[in-house]
Amino acid sequence: MKVILLGELRGKGGEGDVVDVAQGYAENYLFRNKIAQPATPGNLKQLEQRRDSIAKREAERIANAEATKAILDEKLVKVDAKIGEEGQLFGSITSQQIVDAIKAQLGVDVDRKRIVRGATIKTAGRHAVEINLYREINAKIVVLVGDEPVAEEPKAEEAAEPEVAEAADEATETTEAAE
């Protein structure tokens, strides 16, 4: 059955696209939720009249998705979690936790359903996460779970120790000279 989409339908198309779907899917889901309408000659004629406004909205959505991608791409987002021995988490990191961390740290609203996850995050460390912003526009972020091991700065410690040792040597020399 051919239908005209009234909004984006993942995997099928965007607003104004005429797609072929199963009749039961169209009648029981798409029409009831006002996601699509039947592709009748009258509806197709109205669609042609609305093409300009649909194209403007589409361009705006793509521009917004590109702007969001520029903000998110390759950014590091830290998510706090309880970590057990050997870096295993108590539970796993959810899409909602990732979305909340993005909102708090980067100030960007992302729908949790847009988070593309291959495997669940159950270990501490860095994990690459993909976010589907709009159609084929995806951003990749790095999610840091737990605390990252901080490289110690031995230079600062070593620099402080010789000064203390030199001061002790000078003190010894002055006491020996005084005797």
TrEMBL record:
It comes from the Bacteria. Keywords: Ribonucleoprotein, Ribosomal protein, RNA-binding, rRNA-binding. InterPro entries: Ribosomal_bL9 (IPR000244), Ribosomal_bL9/RNase_H1_N (IPR009027), Ribosomal_bL9_bac/chp (IPR020594), Ribosomal_bL9_C (IPR020069), Ribosomal_bL9_C_sf (IPR036791), Ribosomal_bL9_N (IPR020070), Ribosomal_bL9_N_sf (IPR036935). Residues 159-179 have a biased composition (Acidic residues). The keyword Ligase does not apply. One of its GO terms (cellular component) is ribonucleoprotein complex. GO terms for biological process: translation. GO terms for molecular function: rRNA binding; structural constituent of ribosome. Residues 13-40 form the Ribosomal protein L9 domain. Transmembrane segments: none annotated. Residues 151-179 are annotated as: Disordered. Belongs to the bacterial ribosomal protein bL9 family. Binds to the 23S rRNA. NCBIfam families: L9. This is Large ribosomal subunit protein bL9. The gene is rplI.
